[in-house]
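Checklist before submission:
- one chain only
- standard amino acids only
- sequence pasted in full

Submission:
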Amino acid sequence: MLNLFDDNSNNDLQSGDIQNEESHSDVSSLESKSENTDNKIQEIQEQNNKKADENKLSEDDISKDNKDQKENVESTEDVSKNNEDQEENIESAENSRPNKFYLPYLIAKKIGMTQLFSNDGISYPVTVLEAGPCNITKINIEKDVGYNSIQLGFCDVKKSKINKSVESYFSKINISPKRYLKEFSLKSVSDDYKIGDLVTVNQFTSGDEVNVTGYSKGKGFSGHMKRHGFSGGRASHGKNSVMRKAGSVGAGTSPGRIFPGMKMAGRKGNDKVTVKNLSIIQIDEERNLLYVKGSVPGASKSIVYLSKGN
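Returned file contents:
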């Protein structure tokens, strides 16, 4: 028989088988590599999903923390508002309630005069006084200084208008500086009196009688007739240029001097005057006004001192 397949053909077949086997191995290696890459991709995706879940959880926690912080801030704001409201209520209650102590003295400013009418149509000439509010700025006790008294301060003043010593005193007692200070004597000092307490018109009632002390209007230098009410000399019976003379003021040789207190020309007015037992017709507590029957010494916007009458 003839040999159809020579050696060369056999070699070709063997090489083809080898190539087929190599191609199969390459395919299997590629498949394994693709599987590995798929597994890696899945692992990476799972890791990313875990990170995303962790980020979501962290974001949720952060949002919860922010909400909690906001709620805490709102609660603190509510508490502060409630505290402010309580303080305002306390201050309004303290201002609205009557004085917890009795002090028969007050500093006031004269506003002017007007008239009030009763239900019967009777007119009353009254003086309007802005009385207080005053602060107790000092308390003197007999065992310390030898007498009992209380000092009241009225009308605030700027710090630039006072000296350093006065400013330091008011800063120590935690009171705004006052323009007018006045001491009032007392028989005894009560334990209810404390520095910084307010004294207002609440301690007075309509119908009370008060004594008002002030300084009268200044008239300047005046002659003896206007100042003391002299009538002057006679205008007849041979008198000449004596109608407005002061007359004799004393002997020349002995004692040869003017006695103290001689009524002569000089400065008139600006004297300390007290008008007693003036009735209080009306009280305006909101504006700290007292309507006192009659006239009060001093010009408008002058300072007067009130004391309760007997």
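Reviewer check: Residues 190 and 217 are 37 Å apart (CA to CA).
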